[in-house]
């Protein structure tokens, strides 16, 4: 499960709240479906798990929790919106992309990295808080050649709630995740690549699959 932890600086102890997400079983493929593209477990490159301080409350999002949330949203989006079969792939620096794609009958591999996530007071006078997430998505073809790489950002702004609540934190994190991933759905270059994965040679002229 996903846990967001609010650690209050002025007091000892932490309070945790659960964020809703579907389990892997909910997004897994039927056993008779042929796999088409691999999605590497999301990589969190944030230097710190603390995403900000609001009203003396340090807001902490664990890396494992955030990668689960973002990765599941990406896979579910590809499965449901694009209609392309996907599977999670474990990958390290010594792995051969070509060997993995051949063994699993995949046409390519998608790697998603979380570069940053932060929350801050956008306007103290107007009592507004804002959050921003920056992602980097890379696509490798079946031989390991990089064919796409782009960063995207998602923003969320709302009226501040004092003190910040667990429900507020949940809404903020899920909102920036959704808006960041939406940037890729509107990218014409990525549409063409996904179309080629899905339809083969004729996919280069099919760009309306999102």
Structural class: alpha/beta
The strand count comes to: 10
Q: Give the biggest sheet.
A: 6 strands, mixed
Beta-strand content: 35-45%
* CATH class category: Alpha Beta
The CATH architecture classification is 3-Layer(aba) Sandwich
Structure write-up:
By secondary structure, the protein is of the alpha/beta class. It has one domain: Rossmann fold, CATH 3.40.50.10610. Helix content is 30%, strand content 37%. It contains 5 helices and 10 strands, in the order ββαββββαβαβββαα. The protein is elongated and about 55 Å long. Mean pLDDT is 76; it is low at 1-17, 22-35 and 202-210.
Key features?
210 residues; alpha/beta; Rossmann fold; 6-stranded mixed sheet; 4-stranded antiparallel sheet; 5 helices; 30% helix; elongated
Describe how the helices and strands are arranged.
Elements: E1 2-8, E2 14-19, H1 24-27, E3 37-40, E4 43-44, E5 50-54, E6 57-61, H2 63-82, E7 86-89, H3 97-103, E8 108-123, E9 128-141, E10 146-159, H4 166-185, H5 188-199
Parallel strand pairs: 3-7, 3-8, 4-8
Antiparallel strand pairs: 1-2, 1-6, 5-6, 8-9, 9-10
Helix pairs in contact: 2-4
What's this, in brief?
The protein is an alpha/beta fold and 210 residues long.
